[in-house]
Amino acid sequence: MNNSVGNTGRVLWAGLRALLVLTLVCGVLYPLTVTGIAQLAFPGKANGSEIEDASGKVVGSELIGQTYHLPLKDGEETPAPDLRWFQPRPSNGLGTNSVNTQYSIVLSGATNRSGDNEDLIKWVTDAKAAVVKDNSTAGFEVKPSDVPADAVTSSGSGLDPHISPEYAELQVHRVAEKNRLDVAAVEKLVADHTDDRILGFIGEPRVNVLALNTALKDLAATR
Residue 41's domain spans which residues? Predict the structure, then answer.
């Protein structure tokens, strides 16, 4: 009986020591080591790839897209885009947060509509018409054939922070007019914020909308 109790005690003590050691190694030392290496090697990415404005204020993450809308008016179901800014890709089909109403959370998801779905066709048709209308100015006419695919379709996550250089360039004249800036200056802004393919062959050239709009804000403030 005494041997049984003693053996049980030794097993329990060995298990407790293993728990304490593994908790220290895996729950404290390992996370601190990885965090320390990340902060030293690539602090920007480790801290969420934050983007700051000229004053040093964090305005968002370069990994998550944002919307640029006017305040919602009475009778409107969806707010109108604020045309002073470069607009991101559409985010149709994400729905609303009906589960957690205490906090404002970011919803991610695709429309999951097939190519012949009536809702999707209407979204794309309406979006193309809006892009043509919104971006046509007195001296610059946008044709339906000029509208790139990413201007009228959402990404798989609905949170894509990038647009194509073609879509950014299509918006240049409207943005310049709304902000009373020179078209050439806005074109240079787009060129400066156009990233090439990763390693020269992975993916497509892209423009981060938040980074571009942050630079636009700074440029408009100096005019």
Answer: 1-47
Is the domain of 85 the same as that of 9? no
Residue 86 to residues 101, 116, 133, 218, Cα–Cα distance (Å): 30, 29, 15, 14
Q: Where among 9, 30, 47 does a domain terminate? A: 47
Could you report how far apart the first and last alpha carbons of the chain are, in Å? Answer: 89
Are 102 and 193 found together in one domain?
yes
152 phi-psi bin (left φ>0, alpha ψ -120 to 50, beta other): alpha
Which amino acid would we find at residue 215?
A
Number of domains the chain contains: 2
Helix (H/G/I), strand (E/B), else coil: 134: helix
CA distance 172 to 188: 10
Contact 209, 163 (CB under 8 A): yes
Residue with tokens 């293993």: 18
Q: Which amino acid is at 65?
A: G
pTM: 0.81
In whole angstroms, give the CA distance from residue 220 to residue 53. Answer: 13
What whole-number distance in Å separates Cα of residue 82 and Cα of residue 211? 17
Q: Where are the alpha helices (DSSP H) in the chain?
A: 2-24, 30-41, 43-46, 118-135, 165-170, 172-178, 183-192, 209-221
Q: Which residues of the chain have pLDDT under 50?
A: none
- Dihedrals phi, psi of 188, to nearest 5 degrees: -65, -35
